[in-house]
Design brief:
By secondary structure, the protein is an alpha/beta fold. It folds into 4 domains: about 1-75, no CATH class; about 75-195, 2-Layer Sandwich (Beta-Lactamase), CATH 3.30.450; about 195-360, Reverse transcriptase/Diguanylate cyclase domain (Alpha-Beta Plaits, 2-Layer Sandwich), CATH 3.30.70.270; about 365-615, EAL domain (TIM Barrel, Alpha-Beta Barrel), CATH 3.20.20. About 45% of the residues lie in helices and about 20% in strands. Strands 13-14-16-17-18-19-20-21 form an 8-stranded mixed β-barrel, surrounded by 4 helices. The chain has a 5-stranded antiparallel beta sheet with strand order 2-1-5-4-3. Strand 4 and strand 5 (about 170-180) form a beta hairpin. Helix 2 (about 25-40) runs parallel beside helix 5 (about 65-75), helix 12 (about 245-260) packs across helix 13 and helix 17 (about 425-445) runs parallel beside helix 19 (about 470-480).
């Protein structure tokens, strides 16, 4: 025991620098090593220190010590092998057998370069040579192929020298972890983040990154590049006539055709729906744009055969040029969108952006380019407009309305950026910011004893985004929000853009326990047919009818009929745009459930709303 004890003391002192605190009895030390390894299985350094007992030392150690050594090696989830100075395997644990499919009896005594393919390569054979030279080597994400079976995968490993009792290097020790599944999962997630699942084309995220990189690479030299935004004409009719399944098949075929006519470094991407983009980052001359567009149009000439049915397809294309029409991705996307809609309206096929196409002011165009930064830098804030129960006269909730405090222009009203945000896709991060902020504020009110549910408006893009319910569930989890404290307002126009898909999303939101309101009710013409199908709790009568009630009898009849219809369907009714006491009284007479408008309160920031709730005759119950 004394010899074993002194041997262990020397080993621990060499690697730990001290023998204190070291258990004085060998069995205690063995248990300590074993327990430490079980507790820190992922810590390679602990494992190595436990294992760096030379073969010669093990011969002189007790059977108890050898049993502890074997337990550590054989129970490891990682692969462990040792090799001698001739690079032949001397230890091969069950972990290595699981990784490689090669059993211990076939591995021991074999040359290291005969089994594991990475070690056959000159660059990777250094794992052995440098380890035998006394270095510690870390291998990261190495591809391997198993000789004979052809199995491929990835591993990461840690190689360190083994020394005998005199300190001479007698071989090496390696700990190998198979990371094949992790690597595949990472690749799958990466692919999903940057590629469209339907067409396998780059998605909006990838396009944005490539466009941003192209601009940064240009570094102010002003080298021309072009962004083409393409939208299929009458695609909604194709979906309605043939069904979404066949519409998706058409989009997949279109993606294939576009990939065939364009080549690197050009990027073809699908933004969503029937919107595709083409990035031309290396234009020799502007005239080349017309050549590319002609190739795209030629690719669309042949009918698309969808399940045996020929389908004719035409598209409208808008073009924005860098740096003439914008110096950031958002501006270029917005201006290409403007040109595309202009081409669609005129039937011209394609148009290059011109400032006269845009009804917005130059300031508004500049604002769109800065909106993303405004979201990230918290230049936005929310105002809240109270909603009143007309029977109790109490406040029963608030509607969250986004506002923008620009560092240069000051207060920017929402009508200067909401529509353009929808056109450029910025509506997605904007909606997430609004929802997160509103839910956090609702939770803050609850903590102070104020039960104040919040309503948030959704855009058409949110309503047709299949991932939106999942994103919202994550936001509820992050903020600690309660589904019953959140109401989502959706518009008729957003639903009618794609009723079937909208209904699917709305149904998923409703099953999450969220309340849903149909906003701007009355200004559309098709929603009555879908009203029975929609799992909404409330309809909000558009303010244009409410405001006219005082002087227009027809408007009053429409409001009364809408209230009766909603009540017959078991829905509550909110009237927007209440600006006078006379209108409020008439709504109460009609049996309207709730109201909001400037007569009670305009939208207020949080502090002002808190004071209003304490001082106003309209207050919380």
């Amino acid at each position: 025991m004394d010899k074993i004890h002194s041997l262990l003391l020397r080993q621990i002192k060499r690697y730990f620098g001290s023998t204190d605190p070291l258990p004085k009895e060998c069995p205690d030390f063995i248990n300590a090593v074993n327990n430490a390894y079980l507790q820190f299985d992922s810590d390679r350094s602990m494992l190595e220190r436990s294992l760096e007992l030379s073969s010669q030392e093990l011969i002189h150690a007790s059977s108890h010590m050898r049993a502890a050594y074997e337990r550590i090696v054989n129970s490891s989830v990682d692969g462990i092998f040792a090799f001698d100075r001739d690079c032949r395997y001397t230890v091969w644990n069950p972990g290595m057998e699981r990784i490689t499919g090669v059993s211990e009896d076939k591995a021991l005594g074999k040359g290291a370069f005969d089994i594991f393919s990475p070690f056959q390569e000159t660059a990777e054979s250094r794992f052995f040579s440098e380890t035998l030279a006394g270095k510690t080597i870390v291998a990261e994400e190495k591809l391997y192929t198993i000789s004979g079976t052809g199995k491929q995968g990835f591993f990461e490993g840690h190689f360190s020298p083994l020394r005998d009792e005199s300190g001479d290097i007698m071989g090496g020790l390696a700990i190998i972890r198979d990371i094949t599944e992790r690597k595949r999962a990472e690749e799958t997630i990466q692919h999903m983040a940057f590629y469209d699942t339907l067409t396998e084309l780059p998605n909006r995220n990838m396009l944005y990154d490539r466009l941003l990189n192209a601009i940064r690479t240009d570094s102010g030299r002003g080298k021309p590049m072009a962004l083409l935004l393409m939208d299929l004409d009458h695609f909604k009719e194709i979906n309605d006539t043939m069904g979404h399944h066949r519409g998706d098949l058409l989009l997949k075929e279109l993606g294939s055709r576009l990939k065939c006519v364009l080549f690197a470094p050009d990027t073809v991407a699908r933004l969503g729906g029937d919107e595709f983009t083409v990035l031309l980052p290396r234009l020799a001359k502007l005239e080349d744009i017309h050549v590319v567009i002609q190739k795209i149009q030629d690719a669309l000439k042949s009918p698309f055969m969808i399940e045996g049915q020929p389908v004719e397809v035409e598209a409208s294309i808008g073009v924005a040029l860098y740096p003439d029409h914008g110096e950031n991705p958002d501006s270029l996307l917005q201006r290409a969108d403007v040109a595309m809609y202009r081409a669609k309206e005129t039937g011209s096929g394609y148009l290059i952006y011109d400032v006269k196409f845009d009804e917005h002011s130059p300031r508004r165009l500049a604002l769109i380019g800065e909106l993303r930064q405004a979201i990230e830098k918290d230049q936005l804030f929310l105002h809240y407009q109270p909603k009143i129960n007309l029977k109790t006269k109490y406040v029963i909730g608030v509607e969250a309305l986004v506002r923008w405090q620009h560092p240069k222009y000051g207060f920017v009203p929402p009508d200067e950026f909401i529509l353009s945000a929808e056109q450029t896709g910025l509506i997605h991060p904007l909606a997430r910011w609004v929802l997160k902020t509103a839910m956090r504020q609702s939770q803050a009110w609850r903590q102070t004893g104020l039960n104040l549910p919040v309503s948030v408006n959704l855009s058409a893009r949110n309503l047709h985004d299949s991932q939106f319910p999942d994103h919202l569930a994550e936001l509820l989890k992050i903020t600690g929000g309660m589904p019953e404290q959140l109401e989502l307002e959706i518009t008729e126009s957003a639903i009618m853009a794609d009723p079937q898909r909208a209904l699917e999303i709305i149904t998923r939101l409703r099953t999450m326990g969220l309340r849903l309101a149909l906003d701007d009710f009355g200004i559309g013409y098709s929603s009555l047919a879908y009203l029975k199908k929609l799992p909404v709790n409330t309809i909000k009568i558009d303010k244009s009818f409410v405001i006219d009630m005082a002087k227009d009898e027809d408007a009053a009849v429409i409001v009364l009929s809408t209230i009766n219809l909603a009540h017959n369907l078991g829905l509550k009714v909110v009237a927007e745009g209440v600006e006078t006491e006379k209108i409020l009284d008439k709504l109460s007479t009609f049996g309207c459930d709730e109201a909001q408008g400037y007569y009670m309160s305009k939208p207020l920031p949080v502090d002002a709303l808190t004071r209003w709730l304490k001082e106003s005759p309209w207050r919380l119950k």
